[in-house]
Amino acid sequence: MRQQPKPDSPKPVVMIVDDHTQVRRALLTWLSGTFSGAEIITAETGEDAVALAGERRIHVALMDIELPGIDGIEATRRIKAIAPQTRVIVLTNHADQPYRDAAEAAGASAYVLKYRIGTELEPMLAPMLAEAIDDRRSGISNAAGATQDSAHGRDAASLDEAVRQAVGLRLRDQDLAQLAAWKRERVRALALSGGNRYEQLLAEDSVGARRERELLCERFTTGETYFFRDPGQFALIREKLLPEIIERRARQRSLRLWSAGCAAGEEAYSLAMLVDELAPQLAGWKLQILGTDINSKALEKARAGVYGQWSFRALDPGRKQRYFRARGDRWEIDPRLRRLVGFAASDLVHDAFPDPAVGLSECDLILCRNVFIYLDPAAIARITAKFAKTLAEGGYLIAGHSELFGHNIEPLRTRVFAQSVVLQKTTEPPGATDDRLTPAQLPAGAAPAPPPLPRRVPLRAPRVQKAPQANPPSAPAVGFDQLLEQGWRHANRGMPDAADEDCRKAIAIAAFDPRPYYLLAQLAQERGDTAQAKTLLKKVIYLDPSFVAAYLELGALHEQDGEDERARRMRQAARRELGKQPANAEVAPYGKSTAGEVLAYIDRLLDGPAKQAARGVTGTAVPH
Ligand SMILES: C[S@@+](CC[C@H](N)C(=O)[O-])C[C@H]1O[C@@H](n2cnc3c(N)ncnc32)[C@H](O)[C@@H]1O
C-alpha cells in the first residue's frame, strides 16, 4: 500500500521504501524526530515508490534492495529516469560489493548499511534536506498548473538543455542544483523579467549574452593549467611534430600555432619556449603563436605574463631560469616570449573560425587540451569541424588524452604516437600510402607514416570475443559491461581516478577478462607510467593472446624505451594474430581499421624500426 498523492508540501519530502512494517515505522519515528522540518512518506514496494516519484517531488528516497516485485535497484533506476533530482540512498543489510556497484550504476547517490543509520545516514541527509529547503525558498518550483515537482524537474532539464545548446557545457548531475542557483542569481542581478528570459539570453548574439556565456564557463569549468602540462605531448611536439612542420613550411618560412582554451597562457608560452629553442632553424621566419580563451580575466593574466610558483610545477629549472625573471615571489616571462605570443578572447563554441582577420587560419598546430572535457558532444563536433577548416594541410590538432575518444572527428585522421594520440588534417584518401611521410623523407626524429587510418577515435573498450568470464558476476547480475563503459566514459572525461576505480570494480566481477586491464594500461600511459602500462599490457596478452592492440601498444612502448628487438617481437605476434582474421574484419579498438589495413601498417613498422633505430628515432605511430 502506498500513500495517496497529496499536493506538494512546502517541506522537503523523504520517502521510505521498505516492505517491512517495523522497519518503516522505526525509520519514520527516527526521521520525524531528527528532521522535523521534513515530510516523510512511505512506500512498501518498488512499483509504489516509482509511482510516487512520478506524481510528486521527492527529495530523498531511502531505498531497501529486497522488495516484492521490482527490487530496490530497479526502482532506483526507474526513479532516476523519471525524476533525476530525487536522491536515492540505498539502505540495506547487503554489504557485498556487487550490490553497491549495481546501486551506483542505477544512479543511487549513496549506499548505507542499516546498522549505520545513526553514523552515516544522518550526516548525509542533513545537507540534502537543507539544499531542498533552499531550493524551495528561492522559488524555483513553479506551482501553477502541474505539480511543483514535475515543474521543478522540467525547469532543471530545460535549463540544462539551454546551457548545452547555447554554451556547449555538459554539466554533471551533481552540478544541476548549482546551475539552478546560478540562474537565480543571474536573473536577480540582471533584473530579468522571468526564468525563461535567462535561457533566451544565453542563446543571443549580443555583448550581454556573450558575457553571460563567459560567466557560465568561468563558473563551471576550471582554468587549471601550468607550463608544460603533459611533458609527453610537449616532447612529441618538440621532437616530431615541429620538425616535420618546419620542414613542410620551409618555403613559406612561416609557422602558426594556436593554444585554444589557453586559460592564463602557460600553454601558449610553453609553445613559445619550444619555438625559441628551435630558433636557429627559424631565423627570418614569420612566427605566430596565439592563445585564446573565453575567460577575459584569465587572458589578462596571460598578457601580464607573471606567474606564481604553482604554474612551474612541471617546468624544468633550466627553462625557468632561461625564460623568467623573478619579481618578488612571482616570475615574469621574458619579454621576447611575450612578444611572440598574442592573446585574444574567443568562444570556441560560438565564434566562427577560420578567421584570417585575427590570424585563425592555416594553422600548423592547434593545441586544445582540457577544454573538451567540459563540453557536450554536439559542441565538440562543431568545434572540431571548425578546427579542421582552420588547420593547414598536414596541420595537427592535439587534445588532452582521450578527450576525443568516441567523437566523430571525420575530416581529421588519427595518428597515435607512444606519447599521445594526435589528429592530422590531410586530404589524402584513406588507404593511400602517405608518401610525404615515408621514413626516408622524414627529418631525423620523426615518426613513420601512419597506415590507412580510421576516421573515428575509438570510444569503447574493445570487444574481445574470446574473453573468458572465469568469475561470473554474482547477483545482482548488472555490473561488468556497465562498469567498463563507465570506466571509458570517466577516462574520456578526464577523470582517471574514477576510471581506475571502475576498472577495479569490473575486475572484482570478472578477474580474467582482459578489457579492464587494457583500460588500466591506457590510464597508466596517460600518467606517464610506462612500466606499469607494460605490465598491464602483458597481462592483457596473457589473458587473451589474440588481443592485437595490446601487442601493438606494447611494441610502441618497447620501441620508445629503445627495446627494438622486443618491439619487433610484439609486432610479429600482432601480425600472426591478425593473419588468423579475415582481411576485412574490424580490429578492436582501432575504429574502422580492418585486419588487412592494420597488417599493412605492421609490415611497414617491421621494415621501419631498424632504419629508425639507426637514425635514433624514439617513438612510433600506430593506427587508431
Ligand atoms: C582547464 S583549462 C585548460 C588550459 C590549458 N589548455 C591546459 O590544458 O592546461 C580550460 C579552459 O577552457 C576555457 N574554455 C571553456 N569553454 C570555452 C569556450 N567555449 N571557448 C573558449 N574557451 C573555453 C576555460 O575558460 C578554461 O580557461
The general outline is: globular
Outline the biggest β-sheet. 8 strands, mixed
Distance between the first and last residues' Cα: 56 Å
Oligomer: single chain
Task: Please work out how many helical segments DSSP would assign.
Answer: 22
CATH architecture of the largest domain: 3-Layer(aba) Sandwich
CATH class annotation of the largest domain:
Alpha Beta
The tally of domains stands at 4
Give me the count of strands: 16
At the fold tier of CATH, the topology name of the largest domain is Rossmann fold
Task: Explain this structure.
The protein is of the alpha/beta class and 624 residues long. The chain folds into four domains: 13-137, Rossmann fold, CATH 3.40.50; 148-220, no CATH class; 231-400, Vaccinia Virus protein VP39 (Rossmann fold); 480-622, Tetratricopeptide repeat domain (Serine Threonine Protein Phosphatase 5, Tetratricopeptide repeat, Alpha Horseshoe), CATH 1.25.40.10. The chain is 47% helix and 13% strand. It has an eight-stranded mixed sheet with strand order 11-7-6-12-13-15-14-16. Strands 2-1-3-4-5 form a five-stranded parallel sheet, sandwiched between helices. Strands 8-10-9 form a three-stranded antiparallel sheet. Residues 138-147, 431-478 and 609-624 have low confidence and may be disordered. The N and C termini lie far apart (56 Å). The longest helix is centred in the first third of the chain and has 21 residues, at 117-137. The radius of gyration is 27 Å and the shape is globular. The chain has 22 helices and 16 strands. The structure holds S-adenosylmethionine. S-adenosylmethionine binds next to loops.
